[in-house]
Amino acid sequence: MVETGGKNYAIGVDYGTESGRAVLVDVQTGEEIAAHVTVYAHGVIDRQLPGSEVTLAMDWALQHPGDYLDVLRQSVPAVLQQAGIPPESVIGIGIDFTACTVLPVNADGVPLCFFEEYRNDPHSWTKLWKHHAAAPQAERINHLAKERGEDFLPRYGGSISSEWLLPKLLETAEQSPAVFEAADRFVEAADWVVWQLCGELARSSCCAGYKGIWHKLEGYPSTEFLKQLDPRFESLYQTKLAGSVVPVGSRAGGLEPRMAKELGLLPGTAVSTAIIDAHAAVLGCGVTEPGSMVLAMGTSLCHMVLGDEEHLIQGVNGVVEDGIVPGMFGYEAGQPAVGDMFAWFVNTSVSEEIARQAAAEGIGVHNWLEREAGQLSPGQSGLLALDWWNGGRSPILDEALSGLLVGLTLSTTPAEIYRALLESAAFGTRRIIETFEESGVQIVSLYACGGLPQKNKLLMQIFADVLGMDIKVAKSTQPVALGAAICGAAAAGSQASGYDSLSDGIRAMGQTKEQSIRPNREHKAAYDRLYAQYRAMHEAFGVPSGPVGKVMRELKRMRTGG
After folding, report:
1. What one-character DSSP code corresponds to residue 391?
2. Where is the Carbohydrate kinase FGGY C-terminal domain (predicted)?
């Protein structure tokens, strides 16, 4: 790194589901200097289009792309003002985003929903990552890929999600041919924001690999497969999905003058290619070594693993070369219900008396339950849960799966149920780690980040006990935004006092706390017994051919009217 005699900074802009934040970071130390949050004015659009009488069907989730620009215009100047630094001290900007969040644009990159003729068509808006209305299209894609024996499918654990790019585009083509034809490009929102900043479309290797079915050596799915899927898709990746795929942390371009003026920065400031939000957490934790697993723990849980070889793993959502750190293979697995499963219990199943007790003590209900549950020993409640409150992701990719709680009696307490739910999340992660190791990817170190590790000490101790491994916790309270800022520093390069490789930036700026969470060996022995029963239930209810494998699926069909 070139010494300039003064401090230099990078800005990470983290786009979440409800809001976006900018974080100003010291390039040399990774210290967070200032942060600002902008709440999306339109939020998640899941009932009615803004300024319209058009209502949305079940499983729709849209966003207004103008909200993304508001984050830049409000939060970036705000962190500069908070820190009181001159614009020339900022050497780079990085973007992370939820994915797959995709929108159709014209040749100039203007979203189609900005035009009067398309604004009342839901397909012209940004389809958020949790837009699940393309499930029928995903099912057909998976069926055809299996029928043809397509090579790409095993790299995604044997199933393409309805949240991903191709199902969402197929949904648009089938339900709104006018929007599909009018779109010059369909772009990830992450890549669109980068495009707005620097005037260049650079498709991120992270987004393209995990959500767009791109492979570094083999490229995209074959034209034969795409044509059979829909004749209009034959040249899809050469036309409406055209654009170079660029590794994470590379320079996408320089900040163009108009945006520089709006943001209060200098024209030409380095802009990095984008990265998916959860994957940016790997960078924020300072992880660069193979065999490392990062647990990004929030409402859901994403498991990111770095490896030096490509292995095809059933139920793992993707393995992408250059997907997280250039030069390495990045794996992604996940549990779709963790924090929101705990919140469901607190919001729906806790008595008013407990709420009153917590309030009288000046603590939240979660804290009250955590304290009471912490007084229990493993197995004491006789309860065991399956963690599928929002369907199953890894290793059984099936949205029809649902939660299960076994062992209830008339003496069961809320604290016992709460602890069983915490334990179920840890058991689910243990099953995922076993799946990796059974397929040749050894997990040698664990890292945790996100809201839950900072808030729930009992949960993290249970994870360490169940997994039998030390867990290092991110030092930063904003590891995702920090990861995006590291990308910005790498995009700037050493000539601008940044870093010549993303790995160098990660090692310098990523951080974990000095103390790790260590497992309690006595608890580990008890949890081994419980986990054996979890595995039995996991296979029985999760595998369709199991003894009760059709129960949850049939209940889901009945609930949805199928």
Report:
1. B
2. 294-492
